[in-house]
Amino acid sequence: MNPNSSDPTVQPVPASVVEQVDAADVTLSNPKTAVISLGSNLGNRLETLQGAVDALEDTPGLRVKAVSPVYETEPWGVEPGSQPSYFNAVAVIRTTLPPGSLLERAQAVEEAFHRVRDERWGPRTLDVDIVAYAGVVSADPELTLPHPHAHERAFVLAPWHDVDPEAQLPGQGSVDELLSALAGDGLTRREDLELRLPE
Ligand SMILES: Nc1ncnc2c1ncn2[C@@H]1O[C@H](COP(=O)(O)OP(=O)(O)OP(=O)(O)O)[C@@H](O)[C@H]1O
Ligand SMILES: Nc1nc2c(c(=O)[nH]1)N=C(CO)CN2
């Protein structure tokens, strides 16, 4: 006899709960690769980018697998000369965090570096964007995947290409081709600077 069938306190688990638990198990046991873009154009830009890499590594369920070279870049999307130049880099991570939790962590790291949100594309101590999360494609404005501007930003594609020349931007094509289609102006690889991969 089924031992539960005579126990009135044991309710069947609703299918929706089983689905959620299964989905969580899949995430927990199955780390995903994600690409994070880092940018800074205020304060000590290199120190801030390194701090962000270290803070990401300090996140439970997240490992930084690669950090790109550092690029000095002209501010994109704003009046030329209206802001200081950026330092940009990308980090490739493996994580068991689902996308929404990764975004929360990214925003907490920005806040730790005193990021102030006022104007769109305004100058900032630190910007941490999720460029891509596994092959996920989503139009959710809270978390659009891949990042809605990634395909048109050489400051994202060039460092990503450096660490993964075969990379694909889900729904957009190869990073190599997307990068070739953009003028590489306003981007200088800073050979004299380096971000450390946390140990
Ligand atoms: N892939 C993504 N990565 C980070 N934030 C995202 C993403 N998709 C949507 N967002 C949303 O965008 C909002 C604004 O982000 P943020 O202030 O960093 O924009 P921004 O850096 O000024 O511009 P951009 O998003 O074009 O880089 C965030 O609150 C977040 O919810
Ligand atoms: N060069 C450069 N330009 C930008 C950057 C950035 O990181 N680098 N970030 C922006 C908003 O996320 C807007 N413009």
- How much helicity do the residues have? 25-40%
Based on CA atoms alone, the radius of gyration comes out at 20 Å
Main CATH class: Alpha Beta
CATH topology: Alpha-Beta Plaits
What overall geometry do the principal axes of the alpha carbons give? globular
The CATH architecture assignment turns out to be 2-Layer Sandwich
* The CATH fourth-level homologous superfamily: 7,8-Dihydro-6-hydroxymethylpterin-pyrophosphokinase HPPK
Low-confidence stretches: none
Pfam families: HPPK (PF01288)
EC number: 2.7.6.3
Protein name: 2-amino-4-hydroxy-6-hydroxymethyldihydropteridine diphosphokinase
GO molecular function: 2-amino-4-hydroxy-6-hydroxymethyldihydropteridine diphosphokinase activity; ATP binding; kinase activity
Secondary structure elements and pairings:
Elements: H1 15-28, E1 32-40, H2 45-57, E2 62-67, E3 71-73, E4 86-95, H3 99-112, E5 127-133, H4 154-163, E6 168-169, E7 173-174, H5 175-180, E8 187-189
Antiparallel strand pairs: 1-4, 1-5, 2-4, 3-4, 3-8, 6-7
Residues 39, 73-77, 86, 88, 121, 127, 155 line the site of 2-amino-6-hydroxymethyl-7,8-dihydro-3H-pteridin-4-one (PH2).
Keywords: ATP-binding, Folate biosynthesis, Kinase, Nucleotide-binding, Transferase
Organism: Streptomyces koyangensis
InterPro entries: Hppk, Hppk_sf
Task: Give a structural overview.
The protein has 199 residues and is α+β, with helices and mostly antiparallel strands. It has helices at residues 15-28, 45-57, 99-112, 154-163, 175-180; strands spanning 32-40, 62-67, 71-73, 86-95, 127-133, 168-169, 173-174, 187-189. The strands form two sheets. Strands 1, 2, 3, 4, 5 and 8 form a six-stranded antiparallel sheet that branches. A hairpin with a 3-residue loop joins strand 6 and strand 7. The longest helix has 14 residues, at 15-28. Adenosine-5'-triphosphate binds at residues 103, 117, 120-121, 127, 129-130, 142-145, 147, 149.
